[in-house]
Amino acid sequence: MAEELPGVLILDIGGTHGVLENLAALLNKHFQLITMKEFLGNKEEMSKKIQSIFVFECRPTIDCELLESLPNLKVIGNSGVGVDHLDLRMISSFGVKVTNTPHAVADSTADIGMALMLASARRLVEGNVLN
């Protein structure tokens, strides 16, 4: 009998605020993905399976009520650089760890910063409008 994968709570797959479909496919190899809709539809069963929450674009919202409903929660993984949107003190009071991806967008951010500085110095936007 195969071992059951740990459950990870996500807001949704695809759509406006859901996890990107290709990212969901990667996560699905290592976790049982549980959407917020599935969780809310069957809290009693799903709450026992969830060991992690994957926060994508600041969703789902992590609050005291959610943490109280997840007795086996071990880690919250944030797919972004900052964790300002998370109440770290409250989360740690539940014995839950928080991770993030601090270098995931460093190169892209630097590229955009350089492009904006060059565009500003060379007045590229103004030149484009005039043509």
Report the strand count: 5
Based on Cα principal axes, name the global outline. Answer: elongated
Indicate the radius of gyration in whole angstroms.
Answer: 19 Å
Average pLDDT works out at 90
Number of helices: 7
Oligomer: single chain
Strands ordered across the widest β-sheet: 2-1-3-4-5
User: Largest sheet at a glance?
Assistant: 5 strands, parallel
Strand content: 15-25%
Query: What ranges have pLDDT less than 50 throughout 5 or more consecutive residues?
Result: none
The total domain count is 2
> If you consult CATH, what is the topology of the largest domain?
Rossmann fold
Provide the CATH architecture of the largest domain. 3-Layer(aba) Sandwich
Domain D-isomer specific 2-hydroxyacid dehydrogenase catalytic: 26-112
GO molecular function, one term: glyoxylate reductase (NADPH) activity
Pfam family, one: 2-Hacid_dh
Protein name: HPPR reductase
Write a structural description.
The protein has 131 residues and is of the alpha/beta class. It has 2 domains: 7-100, Rossmann fold (3-Layer(aba) Sandwich); 104-130. 42% of the residues lie in helices and 16% in strands. The protein contains 7 helices and 5 strands. The chain has helices spanning 21-28, 36-41, 43-49, 64-68, 88-93, 106-121, 124-130; strands at 7-10, 32-35, 50-55, 75-78, 97-99. It has a 5-stranded parallel sheet. It is elongated. Keywords: Oxidoreductase. InterPro entries: D-isomer_2-hydroxyacid_DH, D-isomer_2_OHA_DH_cat_dom. Residues 26-112 form the D-isomer specific 2-hydroxyacid dehydrogenase catalytic domain. It holds the Pfam family 2-Hacid_dh.
